[in-house]
Amino acid sequence: MKPATEKYTPKKNWRLEDIDFGAIDSTLVRDDEQLFFLLTSASFVEIMADLYARNLVDHYQDNPDASAWLTDHWRQEEIQHGKSLRAYIRAAWPEFDWDSAYHGFAQQYGALCTAEELEPSRALEMAARCVVETGTSTLYRCLYDYANEPVLKQLLTQIKADEVRHFTHFHRLFQAYNAIEKNSAATVARTIWRRIREIGDDDGYVAFKHAFIGRHPDTPFNDADYVRFSKKINRWARRRYPYRMAVDMLLAPLPLAPFLKRLLRLPLTAVARATIF
Fold it and tell me: How many CA atoms lie within 13 A of 246 on its CB side?
């Protein structure tokens, strides 16, 4: 049975040409290696959306509306995020060979990103996608709050708005599929928790590894470099992370009454503050 999904109405989206990369004040970012690694890792993962999209389209091939949105909107916008971040990196850190570093990332990570990673249930995969979009939305929110370079601020404004829109549409698709599958709140919660624990396990590590190799070609990479970076990022994120926003987004797919979600919001936000990062 095909789910009753809403027809997607696209908004007039921004274009790469709207960002004046020639106006970047590189003096504000050049020495910020933490920012370099965050932006470069994000650019690698976003441009790989072509592969993620193919896997998802195959998973939802019997739903033309979902497949069309994934192909024509989500995929295109994610790739644009990656291309715009790549353009920013090339302008701000011109000595970095982005193409060579990305080639290494794509070879290693492409082998890990397979259809077998998807949830077997259509509804539960959409719940898992909500978790991923929560992660990207909150990451770009942190980066926006941290950034003091005007062009980067403008770029992050556009990207974070796109990610929230993507979350909203994945949530609608989840609701449509779950109206048929009727997964319980406990089942959905287990899927959400499992995907939370997986965030950054492969893509974050592999992206950082190849960004590090590209930035420090004469220094052998080892896992301790990633551990040190992760600890620094955790301290950085703890001061900026929008915990309330993340909790609200993660509660959204749970098939619970609204008043129960309101009751859960404050204690879950407190738990998140105490345990995340």
Answer: 24
- CA triple 32-218-232, angle to 5 deg: 35
| pLDDT tens column, 76-124 | 999 999 999 999 999 999 999 999 999 999 999 988 877 677 898 999 9
Q: How far is CA 180 from the centre of its chain?
A: 27
Asked if residues 136 and 246 have their Cβ atoms less than 8 Å apart, the reply is no
Cα separation, 123 vs 153, whole angstroms:
35
DSSP 4: -
Q: Write the Ramachandran bin of 146: left for phi over 0, alpha for psi from -120 to 50, otherwise beta.
A: alpha
φ/ψ of residue 262, rounded to 5? -65, -40
Tally the residues of the chain.
Answer: 277
Contact 92, 29 (CB under 8 A): yes
- pTM, 2 dp: 0.92
Domains, the chain: 24-275 (1.10.620.20)
What is the C-alpha to C-alpha distance for residues 46 and 253, in angstroms, rounded to an integer?
24
| Residue 211 near residue 43, CB atoms below 8 Å | no
Q: What is the pLDDT of residues 220-235, one digit of tens each?
A: 999 999 999 999 999 9
Q: Is 206 exposed, middle or buried (0-12, 13-18, 19+ CB in 10 A)?
A: buried
How far apart, in whole angstroms, are the C-alpha atoms of residue 136 and residue 111?
A: 22
